[in-house]
Amino acid sequence: MASIERYAAFSDDPSGGNPAGVVRDAAGLDDAAMLKIAAEVGYSETAFITQRLGGNHYRVRYFSPLIEVPFCGHATVATAVALGPGDHVFTTNAGEVPVTVDDAGRATLTSVAPLITDLTSVELAQILAALRWSADELDPEVPPRVAYAGAHHPVIAVRSRQRLADLDYDFAALKELMEAKGWTTIQLVHRTGAGSFDVRNPFPVGGVVEDPATGAAAAALGGYLRALKLVPDDATVHLRQGDDLGRPSRLTISLVPDDPRVRVSGTAVALPA
Length: 273
Fold this sequence. Notes:
Strand order of the largest sheet: 1-2-3-4-6-7-8-17
CATH topology of the largest domain: Diaminopimelate Epimerase, Chain A, domain 1
Oligomer: single chain
Shape: globular
Radius of gyration: 17 Å
C-alpha cells in the first residue's frame, strides 16, 4: 500500500499553508489508483513520484480529488521539502521544474517559461457573473489576462480588499466555465503595494472551493506582472494568501533578468499522518 506523507506548504505552522499529500514511491500505481488516493487524502493536490530518473531527478504527477493537473506549486514545495535539502529536478506534465531546498527547509521552484494571453470580453463577463462581481470593481491598472507557468490561470484584480474578502462564487457555474476553457484556478488579486498582493484562488475543477496557497498561480502571476511591466525585471513580489480561510500562507515570487522563468519560494511543515 502506498505510504502517504502530509505537509502544509507555504507556511512553517501546521495550522497554516496549503496541505498536500506526498507519495514518494508511486511506481506501481496507475492513474485510477492515484486519483483514488488523492480523493481519499482530500487535499487540493497530492503529488506522486512515479519514477526515479537518476540522482535527484524525479517524474512527478499531481492529482486533485477530481482530476490530474499538469503542475502544482504547493505540492512541489511539499515534495521537495520531504526529499530534503539539495537540488532536485521534477519532470512534470508541464515540463522540467528545478527545485532547490536550503538547509532551513525553504524550497524554491523554477517554473517553466510563462505565457500570457488575452482574456476575451465574453470570457471576462462569464467569470464576473460566476464570481458575482461587477466590472466597475476591477482594478484598471492590473488588467485581466490568462497567465500560464505550468497551468492556466485567469488573473482578475479588484480595487477593494473587502471585495476579495467577501468572495462567494457560484461553484457550479465557475467549474463549468473553467472546464470548458482548460483553466486550473482563477487568480484573484488585490494589489497592496509596489511588490505585494493579497490573493485568492477558487479551484472548483479540482473539487475544492478554494486553495489556501497556490504556487502554480503565483508563478503565472510573476510572468504576468513582468510581461505587463507592472514590476521590474528583477522584482521580488510577496503574496499573502489563505488568511480569509484561516490558513495563512506566504509565497515569494522572484524574477531574474534575462531568464523568462519565475521562481516561487516558501517553506513547508510536516503534518500528522
